[in-house]
Amino acid sequence: xxxxxxxxxxxxxxxxxxxxxxxxxxxxxxxxxxxxxxxxxxxxxxxxxxxxxxxxxxxxxxxxxxxxxxxxxxxxxxxxxxxxxxxxxxxxxxxxxx
Length: 98
Fold this sequence. Notes:
This protein is mostly helical. It has helices at about 1-5, 10-25, 35-45, 55-60, 65-80, 85-95. Helix 5 packs across helix 6.
């Protein structure tokens, strides 16, 4: 995750994903402040060799928690006609590999 949070082009991709999630949250009345996002990105840059549970499950060939982490977010976005090209790309890749 430190590479994703601190190395181009990954940081741009991560920011685009974050922006999609922020827009979806805002449509549900939840405001995620930019300073909070920046704080989390800075903290993530400092954590070395951390792999999220979904990644570990994927590598180990286990079923991933896609429904809770991604599918529910996309369901909200689609019900509100919010465009999510990055999240759709992630979903397509996870679906084709599972």
